[in-house]
Write a structure and sequence with these properties.
76% of the residues lie in helices and 3% in strands. By secondary structure, the protein is mainly alpha-helical. It folds into four domains: 11-139; 235-561, no CATH class; 579-625; 696-732. A three-stranded mixed β-sheet has the order 1-2-3. The chain is elongated and about 130 Å long.
């Protein structure tokens, strides 16, 4: 099967991407306006806007099969106001985001009945959808930045929805880090445009290598800016605070979709922007390989650190928040392995894209299921829950499916994505010979076991075990909730049960937009996911994770990590305090100096008074003793006045007479020469004018300058200008 390269693919011009971004943006304000008059239509309007967006996203995915869908919007002096370019990867992510958002909108109709400020919620819920979809459909970094900021600022309102002290603190962290990420992206975009003249998302390694070490600064700003949104360690501190306080449908989208915009940006940067534009099979991939190696270790640190911290959490949504960070580590590691292997990194990129799709479904499902438990029990602490499987059988079954998916049970979606990622890190170890990559592969395996352990703790703590005595009867799931849970569970099962079809129809066409070896992509199409080595590896991971839970499950519920281990407490707060101290220390020093100068001013005045008395006495003493010298000076001045001034006057008079005579002779000779020379000049001018107007004598130059040959419109223009100048001088 042949896969077109991004350069060879055809371009389809369509306004469809603009409508997909505008419908939720405009729909949010329309739903808000309608809800002010009749709140009964609020949920229906939101579902209709999300459904129409999903329909158009599906049509866009179909259109992208024939080539990239492109649209350029221009305005005034700007060459491009917005630039949409949707290839197969962008179309797949757009469809995925629209689908999960539609299901979350349906769940919101049932969940938000128990919450306040629903008008505001649905307004910013749909605005965030428009910003998120715009990120996936843009073709340059500037347009991506615009939608990235729209999504960041509008989703912040969803985080602070409850308006509690905890929600406000989480919102501040979310906003501060979002602004920091936006500034880093903007700095990289400006540097890229100033030094290359373009911000298009396309292979441009040759241009960037001419920038020297500046290219690493650009890459660092882009990776850090997108990494904040992706929850990359150590830039993840907003995420564990935002998820527990946001409404569960918003948490499902924050984790399932919005953090994917950060991963999407990093993939576009290290796997597309920093790749060779010409002859990638023989190009130099050193820069991309270095960025890939760094990203492998960042992803490895992210997946392990977050999984380890999740073990010691007891709030269900905080467990899922750290789980999202850990799963993003898998994705970042896969993108890094793809960049590290360069032209032969198909397995890493396909694994990263596959796991993004998988994580969107099982993590959205887990957050919605925990939300369904919360609106019935108003409790998120797993130590205060238990035995809910009898009251909520449909929720329990859907939770088991999603939990099995995220842990990698064969037959469900997590297994296929993690298998591809494991192949990628093993291939990087075998062919790249990178330093320490064997340890990265071992950490990959251990992290999988930690995932099994904390997900088992979460599942058993909520649905199994002993039911708390104070927990009364719970209402059953509504048909709408069960429909949403069933759709998510079916997607989790389908993505894991038919990996070959998913690879051939979705993942490989999406990965083919990158400069990769097509033979490696074709090899992936025939990959056997049921190989006994892969099954043994996942069985070992599942067994080790269950063993850890059996040995330490009770201990993990009682032990909590010390506060000093927090990155925020150990690093960020001291840095902010130090920066504030340095910035305000200078002002304090000046203020202290001024205060002390006022308080010490009486002493200073006393010193000045004494000093003045001493100076006065010294001056008087000097005048008394200087009578003789002054008398002699006065006699000398008198002699100079009577004799010296007369001599000086005669000398100055002689100099003045000589200067006057010399200037007169110079002026007279110059005037005489000018009159003699100008006569010849004016005679030449006279004969030229005669030739122009009366006697051209066949000379083409003078014939063309003749006034009779002037254009009539030019003559009128000259007359108009003369009249205008006359009026100006007359009335000025």
């Amino acid at each position: 099967m042949a896969y077109p390269s991004p350069v060879e693919s055809e371009v389809v011009y369509s306004s469809l991407p603009l409508w997909i971004a505008l419908i939720p943006l405009a729909g949010g304000f329309l739903v808000y306006r309608i809800a002010l008059r009749d709140s009964r239509w609020r949920g229906c309007g939101a579902v209709l806007a999300a459904g129409l967006t999903l329909l158009l996203a599906g049509f866009l995915f179909y259109r992208s099969g024939g080539g990239a869908v492109e649209l350029k919007l221009q305005a005034g002096f700007l060459e491009r106001l917005l630039y949409f370019r949707v290839d197969r990867l962008g179309a797949a992510f757009t469809l995925l985001a629209a689908l999960i958002w539609f299901l979350a909108t349906l769940f919101s109709v049932f969940y938000m009945r128990h919450e306040g400020e629903q008008n505001r919620y649905y307004l910013f819920f749909l605005l965030s959808l428009g910003g998120c979809l715009g990120v996936f459909m843009t073709g340059d970094l500037l347009s991506l930045f615009v939608f990235f900021e729209i999504m960041s600022f509008t989703s912040c309102v969803l985080v602070v929805h409850a308006r509690t002290a905890e929600a406000d603190e989480a919102g501040r962290n979310y906003l501060y880090l979002g602004v920091l990420g936006g500034l880093l992206l903007l700095a990289a975009i400006l540097l890229l445009y100033c030094y290359t003249g373009s911000v298009t998302l396309a292979p441009r390694l040759e241009e960037l290598e001419r920038l020297g070490n500046l290219r690493f600064l650009i890459a660092a700003c882009l990776i850090a800016g997108f990494g904040i949104k992706a929850g990359m360690v150590p830039l993840h501190i907003w995420l564990p605070k935002a998820h527990p306080v946001a409404p569960s449908p918003a948490s499902a989208l924050l984790s399932g979709i919005m953090i994917k915009t950060g991963a999407y940006g990093i993939i576009r940067v290290i796997n597309l922007l920093f790749t060779p534009a010409h002859h990638p099979e023989a190009g130099h991939w050193e820069t991309a390989a270095l960025l890939g190696l760094v990203m492998i270790w960042i992803g490895t640190a992210t997946m392990f650190t977050a999984a380890f911290i999740a073990l010691f959490q007891n709030n269900a949504k905080r467990i899922l928040a750290y789980s999202s960070i850990s799963q993003m580590g898998y994705i970042l590691m896969g993108a890094g392995a793809a960049a590290y292997l360069g032209y032969h990194g198909a397995a890493g990129l396909a694994g990263a894209v596959y796991h993004i799709v998988n994580h969107a479904f099982f993590k959205a499902s887990l957050f919605m299921l925990v939300g369904a438990v919360y609106i019935r029990t108003h409790e998120l602490d797993v130590r205060k829950l238990g035995g809910l499987w009898r009251s909520l059988p449909a929720t329990t079954l859907a939770f088991l499916v999603a939990a099995a998916g995220i842990t990698g049970v064969p037959g469900l979606n997590g297994y296929t994505g993690k298998t591809l990622l494991h192949h990628a890190i093993v291939e990087a170890l075998a062919h790249g010979h990178g330093p320490g990559l064997a340890w990265a592969e071992k950490i990959f395996t251990v992290t999988g076991a930690l995932t099994v352990c904390y997900i088992t703790k979460l599942c058993c703590g909520i649905f199994f075990g002993k039911r708390p005595a104070g927990l009364g009867p719970l209402p059953k799931e509504t048909p709408g909730e069960m429909a949403v849970f069933a759709a998510l569970s079916a997607a989790i099962a389908a993505l894991g049960s038919f990996p070959a079809q998913v690879l051939n129809r979705l993942i490989i066409p999406a990965a083919a937009v990158f400069p990769l070896d097509h033979h490696a992509l074709e090899h992936l199409a025939g990959l056997n996911f049921w190989d006994h080595h892969d099954l043994q590896a996942i069985a070992a991971v599942l067994g080790l994770g269950l063993l850890l839970y059996l040995l330490f499950g009770r201990l993990l519920q009682r032990v909590s990590l010390p506060a000093w281990l927090s990155v925020e407490q150990a690093v960020y707060r001291p840095l902010v305090f130090a920066a504030g101290f340095l910035l305000t220390g200078g002002g304090r020093a000046v203020e202290t100096a001024v205060d002390r100068s006022y308080s010490c001013s009486p002493y200073a005045l006393r010193v000045l008074t004494i000093s003045g008395s001493l100076v006065d006495a010294a001056a008087e003493n000097l005048l008394i003793k200087s009578t003789g010298p002054l008398q002699r000076a006065c006699l000398a001045l008198s002699r100079f006045d009577s004799e010296g001034t007369a001599r000086l006057g005669r000398w100055l008079q002689r100099i003045a007479v000589r200067v006057r005579d010399g200037f007169y002779r110079l002026w007279y000779d110059g005037l005489r020469r000018f009159i003699h020379g100008s006569g010849y000049f004016w005679r030449r001018i006279f004969f030229v004018l005669v030739r122009m107007d009366f006697n051209p004598k066949g000379i083409r130059f003078f014939q063309s300058l003749n006034i009779s040959n002037l254009d009539f419109n030019l003559l009128l223009m000259m007359i108009f200008l003369l009249v205008l100048l006359s009026l100006f001088f007359l009335f000025y």
